[in-house]
Design goal:
It is a single chain. The chain has helices at 9-17, 21-43, 46-62, 73-112, 119-131, 135-146, 151-158, 162-180, 184-196. With 198 residues, it is an all-alpha fold.
Length: 198
């Protein structure tokens, strides 16, 4: 069995990067409980908090050769758990938004008796409408509405003018209004939710 005399965090993590499972286990035991408690402050659920911390350590081991700890190992762990918790919270919020949207859409279907407004058909119509756009217009639309880039960033990326980007976006939105007019009150929200859930 490996004997580690100097077991401060930095030395242990150096051992981890060299493949020492014992050093990894020491760090895991040293911080696990505190990290779970910290995660639980954000998630308010013990099982989810434990899963987050376990996932952080799993990824740490998997990526041990490429991880660069700029400050202290402790700070790195808490920052990693914090970021992971934010992703979990965001994911839950998106799912909840999607659930509410789905319920609203179902109510709309019942009121209107229109099966075409079913959320899954709407998803397909969105895909078809976007894919039917000319190639450059489709790229501009996706970079703006899906990637969240500003018009100038899109222009620089595609080597076109900002005015050209504006024209493409105007035509893209016009074609969506034409193809998806009945669903327009929900369409841009749904595009964002649909893409983020892929």
């Amino acid at each position: 069995m490996e004997v580690i005399k100097d077991n401060n965090d930095e030395n242990l993590f150096q051992r981890v990067q060299q493949g020492s499972e014992q050093a990894f286990e020491q760090l895991f035991k040293r911080y696990y409980a505190n990290l779970v408690n910290y995660a639980n402050l954000m998630l308010k659920e013990k099982a989810a908090s434990e899963e987050v911390v376990q996932d952080v350590f799993f990824k740490m081991w998997e990526n041990r050769h490429t991880i660069h700890v700029k400050s202290s190992f402790k700070s790195y762990c808490f920052r990693a758990v914090h970021n992971h918790c934010l992703n979990v919270v965001k994911h839950v919020a998106i799912r909840e938004e999607y659930k509410q949207f789905n319920e609203q859409e179902r109510n709309y279907n019942e009121q209107k008796g229109n099966e075409e407004s079913n959320v899954f058909e709407l998803e397909q119509k969105i895909i078809e409408a976007i894919e039917a756009m000319p190639e450059v217009r489709k790229k501009v639309f996706k970079m703006s509405r899906i990637d969240g880039l500003k018009y100038r960033e899109i222009a620089n990326s595609l080597n076109i003018s900002v005015k050209t980007v504006e024209i493409h976006m105007s035509k893209a939105l016009a074609s969506l209004r034409k193809d998806l007019g009945p669903y327009l009150p929900h369409i841009m929200l749904f595009i964002q939710l649909f893409i983020r859930l892929q």
